[in-house]
Amino acid sequence: MRQVLLSSAVALSATFATSLFAQDNAASGPTPAEQAKALFEDVHKAYKTSGCVSEETLIHVPEFMGMEAQNIKVKALLSEKNAQFYVEEQMDLYWVDGELSIITPGDDAGYLAVEADSLLGGLEELMPGGSAMMPGMWAVQLRYSDSYDDWISSFTMGAPGAEVTSVDKTDDGSIITMKSMMGSAKILINDSKIGSVDMEMQQPGASLTITVRSNVSLLKEVPVIKVDAGDRKKFTSMEEYMEANGLDEGVEMPEEESLSGESAPDFTLANMDGSGNVTLSELKGTVVVLDFWATWCGPCKRGLPYLNQFNDWVKEEGLNVKVYAVNVWEEGQDEKVKKFWSDNKFTVDVLMGSDDKKLTDNYKVNGIPTTVIIGLDGTIVNQHSGFAGGDKMIADLKEAVTKALAGDDSDEGHAEGHND
Description:
Blueprint: H1 2-28, H2 32-49, E1 52-61, E2 70-79, E3 83-87, E4 91-96, E5 99-103, E6 110-115, H3 119-126, H4 138-144, H5 148-155, E7 163-170, E8 173-180, E9 183-190, E10 193-203, E11 206-219, E12 233-235, H6 238-244, E13 268-271, E14 277-279, E15 287-293, H7 298-317, E16 321-327, H8 334-344, E17 349-352, H9 359-362, E18 370-374, E19 380-385, H10 390-405
Helix pairs in contact: 2-4, 7-10
């Protein structure tokens, strides 16, 4: 009996030791983020060292919120010094000889062209943060950027909080699953190429699944890429191009939820500069302008310089108005937000709203930028979303706060939405 017990004890000890070894081995293995980074680095190396990345992509966007389903074809040729990125019936983008050109099918009169030492630099100048929000731009990021953060951000369309949750091996290749504050994505990588991407974008009360299928070829020879602008006139700044096309007049957008006419929901938020907290209810008797924004939001970043100009005007005029840029949807990114503000030398006070889980729900903010104007009595007199040009934005804000200071809380004459 003693021998049996001893044998059982030895066997149990061996089993326990084996289990501990397996746990230690698993714990010491690469994390999903490390596995994903290694896979993306292989893709980046393959793309960057090829003569040219040739990619044909089909993007399927299902019917959503009254919009018809779409199948969008994208073609890209990406070499070291030149590139072409074609979105069927939407855009033809060229980067040739240090110049970035954008041609849209609906505009036969003109096109936009700016100097650009790099494709990514030119895109950032024209569409700050906006290029990350375009499906299919990951090939551009993986070809030209050395930043892992840029790579993963491109697969979540610039949404904050992107992180890898798992990496699974399949017969078709490796599937990387990641999530963000706006949804999730599954990326198939095979033979150091992106094969497919499935993105699920979450909106309040709805979700949208975008499927992308890619065919990538790594070419040794670089094809000739030439800008085909026809007889179109060349414009050298976004402002000049938008003005010539009447885009500053705004674009009609679907009706959005608004709290106009209701009491503004109270909040207490920290001022980014460390000067203390700001409680909205304590500002009653002052007109308050709230601009909800995030560093990853392209339209937000295009509008912020004009919000800064508007704030300067408020101070110069000595008006009883407080302007706040309310940062949202960037939880845990305080240092990034501070650096962005400092780098751009903005002077508008920033309220840190990302940690307040109810703030955007309370204000019915479904998209950003969203601007809310609160009257002297604490009632919301105007609320709108989007950006449609700086001059219009400033003019509309001036008109709205002037009416609010006069106690005019009717809807007539209030600032129209700055739609993008």
